[in-house]
């Protein structure tokens, strides 16, 4: 089961930097990300969302490939495989792009927008859906960044370890209770 973590940063660059670091760690098989999204609230208050997976491009590429193959088969039947390939690839790419545009993968877009609206101008947030992680190694790599856990589905102990690794920089984001407050009283 994947775990959702949302971390806020007090500038517009750090969410991208942490995502780049997590991408590097994924290539080293230290973390397995299902989805990742960066939300930035610029100085004017406008929220921009940057998806890590381009569903439209991926859908168009996959649809174009399948459409080309199917079009070639129909083209062989009609004795014109090149025309069949071109027609099938074009129709497949269009259908794939449309399905990519309409599909919602990973983290819910409405949730991302709602949290993005709570960010202060000039700040950012990183939304990650993590399948697997080597916690000690990943937390050591993230220790140089300063942020605050806004929301997570982690256990209170895991959330506290993450917050400790990110430091307590005093990021003032709505809805970001200190990690110690999330722990149940003994």
Just give the CATH class of the largest domain.
Alpha Beta
Number of helices: 7
Morphology call? elongated
- Residue share in helix: 40-55%
Name the helix and strand elements from N-terminus to C-terminus, one letter apiece: EHEEHHHEHEHH
CATH fold title of the largest domain: hypothetical protein tt1634
Q: Which runs of at least 5 residues are low in confidence (pLDDT < 50)?
A: 168-186
The fraction of residues assigned to DSSP E strands is: 15-25%
Radius of gyration: 21 Å
Q: Specify the structural class.
A: alpha+beta
Strand order of the largest sheet: 3-2-4-1-5
Spatial separation of the terminal alpha carbons: 28 Å
Q: State the CATH architecture of the largest domain.
A: 3-Layer(aba) Sandwich
Total strand segments:
5
Q: What is the number of domains?
A: 2
Note the main sheet: 5 strands, antiparallel
Rounded mean pLDDT is 76
Structure description:
It is a single chain. The protein has 186 residues and is of the alpha+beta class. It folds into two domains: 3-53 and 106-173, hypothetical protein tt1634; 63-102. It has helices at 14-27, 55-77, 81-102, 109-118, 135-142, 156-166, 179-182, and strands at residues 3-9, 31-41, 47-51, 123-133, 148-152. It has a five-stranded antiparallel β-sheet, sandwiched between helices. Helix 2 (55-77) runs antiparallel to helix 3. The longest helix is centred in the middle third of the chain and has 23 residues, at 55-77. It is elongated, with a radius of gyration of 21 Å.
């Amino acid at each position: 089961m994947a775990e959702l973590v949302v971390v806020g940063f007090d500038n517009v660059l750090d969410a991208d930097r942490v995502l780049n670091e997590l991408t590097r760690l994924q290539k080293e098989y230290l973390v397995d990300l299902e989805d990742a999204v960066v939300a930035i609230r610029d100085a004017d208050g406008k929220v921009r969302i940057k998806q890590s997976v381009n569903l439209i491009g991926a859908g168009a590429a996959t649809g174009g490939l399948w459409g080309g193959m199917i079009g070639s088969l129909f083209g062989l039947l009609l004795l014109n495989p090149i025309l069949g390939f071109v027609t099938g690839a074009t129709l497949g790419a269009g259908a794939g792009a449309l399905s990519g545009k309409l599909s919602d993968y990973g983290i819910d877009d409405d949730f991302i927008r709602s949290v993005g609206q709570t960010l202060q101008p000039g700040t950012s947030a990183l939304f990650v859906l993590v399948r697997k992680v080597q916690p000690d190694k990943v937390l050591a790599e993230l220790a140089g960044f300063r942020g605050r856990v806004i929301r997570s589905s982690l256990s209170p102990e895991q959330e506290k370890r993450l917050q400790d690794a990110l430091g307590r920089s005093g990021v003032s984001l709505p809805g970001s209770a200190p990690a110690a407050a999330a722990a149940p009283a003994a």
